[in-house]
Description:
Elements: H1 13-17, E1 29-37, E2 40-48, H2 51-72, H3 80-87, E3 93-94, H4 97-112, H5 122-125, H6 138-144, E4 153-156, E5 161-164, H7 177-191, E6 197-201, E7 204-208, E8 216-222, E9 225-235, E10 239-244, E11 249-252, E12 255-258, E13 272-279, H8 282-295, H9 297-305, E14 311-316, E15 321-323
Antiparallel strand pairs: 1-2, 2-6, 3-5, 4-5, 6-7, 7-10, 8-9, 10-13, 11-12, 13-14, 14-15
Amino acid sequence: MLCSLTATPASNAAALVRRPPPARAVQAGWFKREEAIMGTAITVELWADDDLTGHTAIDAVMAEMHRIDRAMSPHKADSELSVINRLAATEPVRLSAEMFGLLECALAFSALSGGAFDISYASVGQLYDYRAGIAPSREALAQAQPAIGWRGLRLDRATRTLAFARPGMRIDLGGFAKGHAVDNAVKILTGLGVQHAFVSAGGDSRVIGDKRGRPWTIGVRHPRDAKALVAVLPLEDTAVSTSGDYERFFETGGLRHHHIIDPATGRSPAAIHSVTILAADGLTAEALSKSLFVLGVERGMALIESQPGVDALCVDAGGRLHYSTGLQAPQRA
Length: 333
């Protein structure tokens, strides 16, 4: 793990679980729920010894997802992220401890990836309208692109503030916050004694333990065929992040404009169709999935190979599947 954060789990979750059990008999079993939060599908599946524990644990996870959405959504005017984007170009903005830690992690991944991961891409990213199928003109792109640059994000540890070095700068945590949310959810569940669980926020997921005697299995979809899989991954105690050019996109003039933006060009990378990262935590998995996508197969896989405990598979624009060495089958003698 490149960096770590202190989770801010729902404070009353453990207390709720300690309520007296209901008078009627209850049985251990699997509990599952899905809700739409943070602009994506949030799924929780877990094993619990009784229905009170199961439902309370899922309630705590969903509450945490809503909390992170309120703090980090670019679409909510009163979110901490929105306040930062309104004010940081004119004055240092005091940050919550959680936001400060998250931004420190973001800058660490920017340095590690040589700027391929850069939350300040948002100065250009905001110009794309994926629902309306609108991409920025060359003129608009040229005007906004100078505001991109992670080194212009001035974090001050002494005052716990952030200031933007240039006018027009913005940040977006879309490539980061869901991994953080999944990590927090896992901390909540393990704190409640859950030993077998799956938590997913769109393309970011993490599993706790196994599925009671067999591994969890996560399918990696084919980037051009929603009904086909390119791989099935048996997992235990692992985080997974998949980034694909099929998630949010539109096409104009034969070009596919998708939600992953190369900070160096302001355009969507075209050399890769999908990336899946396996790591110990969701934050690392999500940041590296975006980094590999932008860097391309050769440089991206070199980055992955340099990170202990991290593996990757990706599908390039020619439909070829690439694995890191940790996922390759051992050669038989």
